[in-house]
Amino acid sequence: MHVDYEDSKRELECDWGVLRYHEAGSPDAPPLILLHGSGPGVTGWRNYRGNVGTFAEHFHTYIVEFPGFGVSDSDGGFPVLSAGKSVVTFMRALGLESAPMIGNSMGGVVGINLAIRKPELVSKLVTIGGVGPNLLSPSPSEGIRLLQEMADAPDRDKLVRWLRAMVFDPGVVTDELIEERWEAATHPDAAKTARDMYGSAAFAMQQQFLAASEEPPYWARMGKVQCPVLLTWGLDDRVSPPDMSLAPLRMIPDAQLHVFGNCGHWVMIEAKEAFEKAVLGFLS
């Protein structure tokens, strides 16, 4: 199914501003919500534009554009928390009592947190990298360090280095992709979100907060996840290395792991057909 950007674009008025999303598929089909990742120039449409047509053949599919990434209005909060809040607001506004979700990287963390805190909303969850702690690999990873450099002092060369760390096949990083991401990354909201998430000062503050907090990190509470979870991973992921999958695979009561060879962080792009087949099998 072909899904057009403009024809699928929707807006939802919220108490903090406008939340934008894309909608495709039969209104009689069961719902599916796609949650995007983070990083320079990211949007939900850019993460999933190659997959939404396939999923829309089976589901009434929604791509939510999180606040603060240059598409939906920012609510001024910390990006991951704002994203989770926006999903709850979105589902209530559209009357969605429960839905399966697919979350890329940060979107997977958002989905896991929703499954822990509001289990009634998440019927099944597919994650794409990003979920869990670094057990055997350095933290921050190579990809996260490149993100930090880009967030601290953005320039085009740093963007290109980060983009190439996201994939196994460097041919995925085309001149068109670089221009598209650079233009989006310089949007004031997107640049601020990047600094809030990955800037050196913000990262240091987050580490201090975690050390002082009495609440355990989200991954330490993954045993509370009640829904079935499919963890998908690229074997050559340099942003969230595959050893991160070991904790969620062991801790989540109903979890399975699918690792794609010759694939980096963007599983839904580099392993498109195999990823879609695995996800549709899991969701059905």
Automatic annotation (TrEMBL):
<dbReference type="Pfam" id="PF00561">
    <property type="entry name" value="Abhydrolase_1"/>
</dbReference>
<dbReference type="InterPro" id="IPR000073">
    <property type="entry name" value="AB_hydrolase_1"/>
</dbReference>
<dbReference type="GO" id="GO:0016787">
    <property type="term" value="F:hydrolase activity"/>
</dbReference>
<dbReference type="InterPro" id="IPR029058">
    <property type="entry name" value="AB_hydrolase_fold"/>
</dbReference>
<protein>
    <submittedName>
        <fullName>Alpha/beta fold hydrolase</fullName>
    </submittedName>
</protein>
<feature type="domain" description="AB hydrolase-1">
    <location>
        <begin position="30"/>
        <end position="271"/>
    </location>
</feature>
<keyword id="KW-0378">Hydrolase</keyword>
